């Protein structure tokens, strides 16, 4: 079986151009949550982990001293660096790095951000340990990711569906588990936020050009297995054109400080 890092690189190396143009990822509440939590003063040495094509890093760049934007997938880093050049962002530098093993000195950042990525990480406690190490004392960690609802059945359901669609998905934890892991890594949680991503067309999200018709149908069936209440409350399922429907994933944000 291929490793998760290989699955991530296989997945994202093909999608750098597509991702750079994705309005679902470019804007929206999850970026606003990070910017609000970061509460920047203009002096922060910042690290953005799993930067993708740089949406979070570029939104922060004018508001901080500098940003180091890192990602496991070299093609994403290359695309992000081209875009930074086009946008004349001179305080952003780039590095290919795994979230679980950061090539930076202890205590070298004031602010660390990570948006829409940890559900792909093979070892979240190790990632949190690395974030804690590279932050200075009193430094700030701001994270937003997709999460599962606080229900064993829905944790299993959501992770099965995500994994069927994309084998680089590892696990979407519920908010309570994020709070525990972040606290156990040595942070003090200052603020949290519940939000959602933009409504997505099922037929767009399921990527029929990449996934087989059988997989698409298996995922569609899984949505039909949800109770009407769960479908509406947790996934905002709405009717769409024939053969399609709209839904969104729950998202959770945490603002945490390294106090020790
Ligand atoms: C959804 S995209 C990026 C989202 C980006 N943070 C943003 O705000 O638009 C997820 C990214 O996570 C990266 N990634 C996945 N696993 C990783 C890991 N273990 N370490 C570093 N980057 C990883 C992928 O290469 C991909 O570029």
Written overview of the protein:
With 260 residues, this protein is an alpha/beta fold. The chain is built from 12 helices and 10 strands. The chain has helices at residues 4-13, 16-20, 23-26, 29-38, 55-60, 74-86, 124-134, 152-165, 175-184, 202-205, 213-225, 228-235, and strands spanning 45-49, 66-71, 92-96, 109-115, 135-146, 187-196, 200-201, 238-239, 245-247, 250-258. Strand 1 (45-49), helix 5 and strand 2 (66-71) form a beta-alpha-beta unit. The protein binds S-adenosylmethionine (SAM). S-adenosylmethionine (SAM) binds at residues 8, 12, 25, 50-52, 55-56, 71-73, 76, 98-100, 115-117, 120-121.
Q: Please give the CATH class.
A: Alpha Beta
Report on the biggest sheet.
Answer: 7 strands, mixed
- List the helices and strands in order: HHHHEHEHEEHEHHEEHHHEEE
CATH topology (fold) name:
Rossmann fold
Give a short overview:
It contains twelve helices and ten strands.
Features:
single chain, 260 residues, alpha/beta, Rossmann fold, three-stranded antiparallel β-sheet, 12 helices, 42% helix, globular, binds S-adenosylmethionine
């Amino acid at each position: 079986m291929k490793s998760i890092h290989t699955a991530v690189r296989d997945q994202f190396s093909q999608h750098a151009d597509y991702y750079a143009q994705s309005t679902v990822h470019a804007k929206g509440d999850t970026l606003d949550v990070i910017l609000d939590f970061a509460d920047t003063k203009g002096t922060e040495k910042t690290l953005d982990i799993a930067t993708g094509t740089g949406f979070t890093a570029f939104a922060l760049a004018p508001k901080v001293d500098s940003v180091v934007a890192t990602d496991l997938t070299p093609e994403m880093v290359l695309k992000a660096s081209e875009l930074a050049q086009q946008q004349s962002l001179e305080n952003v530098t780039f590095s290919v790095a795994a979230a679980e093993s950061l090539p930076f000195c202890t205590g070298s950042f004031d602010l660390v951000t990570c948006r829409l990525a940890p559900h792909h990480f093979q070892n979240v406690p190790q990632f949190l340990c690395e974030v804690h190490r590279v932050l200075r004392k009193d430094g700030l960690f701001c994270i937003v990711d997709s999460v599962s609802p606080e229900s064993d059945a829905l944790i299993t359901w959501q992770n099965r569906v995500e994994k069927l669609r994309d084998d680089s998905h590892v696990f979407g934890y519920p908010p309570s588990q994020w709070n525990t892991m972040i606290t156990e890594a040595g942070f003090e949680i200052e603020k949290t936020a519940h939000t959602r991503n933009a409504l997505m067309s099922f037929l767009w999200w399921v990527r029929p050009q990449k996934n087989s018709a059988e997989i698409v149908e298996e995922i569609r069936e899984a949505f039909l297995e949800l109770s009407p209440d769960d479908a509406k409350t947790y996934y905002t399922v709405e009717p769409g054109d024939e053969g399609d429907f709209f839904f969104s994933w729950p998202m959770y944000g945490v603002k945490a400080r390294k106090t020790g």
